[in-house]
Amino acid sequence: MAQIRTSLGLCPQQNLLFDHLTVSEHLYFYCGVKGIPQTTCLEETGSMLSAFKLLEKRDTFSKSLSGGMKRKLAIIIALIGGSKVVILDEPTSGMDPVSRRTTWDLLQAYKQDRTILLTTHYMDEADVLGDRIAIMVQGTLRCCGSSVFLKRLYGPFPLLILRRVRHWRLLVPPFATPPSQSGVGYHIVMVKEPHCDIDEISKLIHYYASAATLETNVGNELSFILPQEYTHRFEALFTALEENQEKLGISSFGVSITTMEEVFLRVNHMEDSKPDIQATHSPSVGSKESKNKDVPSSIRGGFPTQSEDATIVFNTGCSLYCQQFCAMFAKRLMHSWRHWRVLLVQTLGFVISTLFLLKSGDLKYEDEKTRQMNLGEYGQTIVPFSISGRSNLTTSLLTHLENILKPGNHKIKEVQGDLLKYLEGNEECIHLCIVALSVKVAANRTELTVLFNNEAYHSPSLSLAVVDNILFMSLSGADASITVSNKPQPHPQAKESLGSAEGKVVALKIQLGMALLVSGFCFLPVAERTTKAKHMQFLSGVSVLVYWLSALVFDFIVFLVSCCLLLVVFKYCKIDIYVTDYHILETMLILTLFGWSAIPLTYLMSFLFSKSTSAYIKLIMFNYVSGILSILIDTAIAAKIPLTLSNTTKTVLLSSLLLFPTYNLGKCIGDYTVIYQRKIQCTQRQNVPKYLNCGKENTEKNIYSLKEHMIGKYLIAMAIAGLVFLLFIFFWENIFWKLRTFIHQHIYFGVFKRYKTDRISKELSGESEDKDVENERRRILYQPEKLLDSPVLIKELTKIYFKCPLTLAVKNISLAVQERECFGLLGFNGAGKTTTFQILTGERTPTTGDVFVDGISITKNILKELEKMGNFGQKYGKRFKQKRMSKFPIPGVSSTCRTPEETEGQWNYPPETVRSKIGYCPQFDALLEFMTGREIMIMYARIWGVPEHQIQSYVGKSLNSLDLEPHANYLISTYSGGNKRRLSTAIATMGKPSVILLDEPSTGMDPKARRLLWNTVIKIRESGKAVIITSHSMEECEALCTRLSIMVKGKLTCLGSPQYLKNKFGNIYILKAKVKSVETLKDFKIFITLTFPGSKLKQENQGILHYYIPSKDNSWGKLFGILEKAKEQFNLEDYSISQITLEQVFLAFANQDNTGNDDKA
């Protein structure tokens, strides 16, 4: 097993890389594991990194690589070390077409002396790389063989997919029952002239191939499928077409062979016993059924077509807003229900933390206890005693003193001489001598002097108690005694001070709980914004007011429920001041106004974060710390600690604190506590001291007053702050980013970028423009009135990113997309596709130019918001439009930009009207994963205004159109990548948008799901909508697009139908032939080389030859005539001739593009 592992290489489907190892360190590690010598390892690492174009990234950590680069590294790991058996599991997933094609070429080169087992969802990848191809269905191996063998065995049979530009004719998918046993089929695609005679073309084709079927008739393209059993007649057929090309109205035509994807779908369909929308019987050409203009629902597959949409009366006005509000509210409810643990942490965490804090460390005022005056309070002490003269009295006094001190083990120190000098000179007495006695006897007079240590607080009264007891015992006997006690009187002012402190402590404890509660309202806003789900909802027609108002209402309900639980906590903790009598209403008023201000502030601050958990933690810290600091600052100012501050500074500082809801809450709770505790104290006393301020003018003050120590100004501050925060949110969503863009693109561009004018001019005019692109531009510039009603009209669109270095993402694009047209926007990473889509959806604004959707200017409606702010936006915008081009002339950019007055009809539309014209499937799924597929579709149906009684049927048809019904009741978080893409596409097609934007919609789908998506897109297009699609799959573009363009470095380099572009830029034919015997293989190679000068052998494996034959001096008729004769002469088992693929055309253009990645453009 160890020997097997050293010769085995694996590239798993998921990248298993070490984040903190560099690219070269990965390769050194795996070489070491396989026991490769260091010298060999270094050489092999350098050569492979160079071949895969990763040499510049050799010292980069793997976590910093792009997805495509990670796949390349995984492939190198599988190949390195001389692996004899290499297993590659979807090795090129996530790569763009150029990288994928480069990887294919490298795998072809590295497969020598290796056995490679490869799995893939790209059937063209299997066709190019696979010497033998196996197809598995439900865990069973269904077939295995060469590409030619499988195409002959499972190729598509004659079928008919006939589509018209203005209405449906007939749709039959590619799985019809075959009328013959033909296998491989040829697709002949013709580019029509205006006078094209379809009937004559059909007659001509059926004369030579009676079983031929009409495949498509869309736009200016016409296609037929020709069974391979008629290849012997192809020479005459193509010769007749070429000779009568002008008469028949054919601009050009090309031929392609059956694809491996069609084989894959055929095999899967044979295993699928369930009825499928793609498995409908195909009527023969020319039948009555094929001429029906309406397609029955069974063939439509449940997709709501334009005629069906017309039967739905969409809600408008107040009904629509109410329905959208319900949809947004239900979304919030489902989020809380599915994330109930988060809701529990948010609410119960608030309640439990507040309860814990209130029960711990309570501040209570207690009267001081009675203190008995005796030396025992100070432990064992020394009592110095000095006697000057002797008498019976002095003897009695000394005896009684000893009796008093004996129980406490106090020592009597008899001092000779002056007692005061003894005390001053003896350090021991400083701490141990509390009381000292001196007796002087002179004649009949006895003088008793008592001294006390003033370091002991109670020593004066204690010394007198000792003397009084001695004297009393001398007079009344040894059993007599005097007990002296100290009982402090109650201090009302101390209680009042303690009440104020208690109010502040309660406020601080509530602030922590409130920080936990209100910070939790950031989770969904942050998640929706970062996943762009919010942008999708706005595109579908949700207004900013409805979106945020529904969020506020739901979160406010949660907040009020939590506040009711807080009142229960107050009652449990016996803080009756907040819950007795009418106080409960005043407490709820304070808490309600706090929620009104704190929740919008949480929404506003959520814009600063990109992760929900990070936002929650940081907002808790902000809310609590801001509350504590503001209370401390207020207390310091009230105590006159910062003496250096002027009165004006103090006023400004205190006023700024009113912006913090937690500060206002703390002050309200604190002052409210002091006010009512004072009232309680005043009402409980009959003779009230003056210092309690219990006069009528104080006890009957209105607590809502704006005076000092009243809560009125804090309540008003919270009410106003909540409104201000909401206005800031609306400003941010509607105006702020537009104002920022306006200033950035106009003032910044016009003033600070003058020195860049030459650079911009050079960029826009440095390259010659394709003739078709130029004609499209002229058509838009000189006939705008004829195209203004087009679903999409892009006029002189330019986007510049002002940074170092200056980046021109989109360069002067002009384009019109008509109804029932699917336009493909292709390009290498960084070509500008994503930027163009972002401008179309309103995420970004152009630097120059304009975009019209259904005649409504997106750019003008963005600037409309500035007009609402005053005349600045309109006047400055007009002045800039008129003067910018004269000050900064840019060749190739038209200066005939219409001002707002000139586009009056395109100006007065609310933003949601413009957005609702567009259906958008973003590149990365903007889905709410806590919802099910059905729930999110119902939400978008409500957003669009579908009547409630029609929502279920409407959503059901949309789900069925993409075969999502089996998954509809599962959470989106459980969906595969392909199902998420299908769901995103279904959402994009909902409602009544006139334009559908699909950004790589089939990423991650298997061929069957991808074909299902294509079928849906075709039906969307035929329903009267315009579709703009970007894709890395050239086969997808050929199947869907009526026109397409390839973007290179921000410019359109070509424009036309797929077949037109292949005819225009394709200069080769592709020949694949399988020679039965090895003996004739060499002779056949010589024959091809001599017959077709300039031909190139691209690949040879197991008798299968892959040639590129120049199209110069060769025609379709000539090629098929020669190969039909060669088939018998050289004993060919099979052969196929096809035109250059669209991908090869794309690669030719993409090789011109060496820019960055698509994230930037």
TrEMBL record:
Major location, coarse class?
membrane
Sequence ranges assigned to domain ABC transporter in this UniProt record: 792-1074
Q: Which UniProt keywords apply?
A: ATP-binding, Membrane, Nucleotide-binding, Transmembrane, Transmembrane helix
Nucleotide-binding as a keyword of this entry, yes or no, is: yes
Molecular function GO labels: ABC-type transporter activity; ATP binding; ATP hydrolysis activity; lipid transporter activity
Q: Which SMART domains match?
A: AAA
| Localization | Membrane
Q: What Pfam families is this protein classified in? A: ABC2_membrane_3, ABC_tran, R1_ABCA1
Matching entries from InterPro entries are given as: AAA+_ATPase, ABC2_TM, ABC_transporter-like_ATP-bd, ABCA, P-loop_NTPase, R2_ABCA1-4-like
Is Membrane one of the keywords?
yes
Membrane topology term: Multi-pass membrane protein
| Region Disordered: start-end pairs | 274-303
What are the TM regions of this chain, as residue ranges? 340-358, 505-526, 546-570, 582-609, 615-633, 714-732
Q: Which CDD domains match?
A: ABC_subfamily_A
Q: Which domain of life is it from?
A: Eukaryota
One Gene Ontology cellular component term attached to this UniProt record is: membrane
What protein does this entry describe? ABC transporter domain-containing protein
| Organism from which the protein derives | Myodes glareolus (Bank vole)
Recite the lineage of the species.
Answer: Eukaryota, Metazoa, Chordata, Craniata, Vertebrata
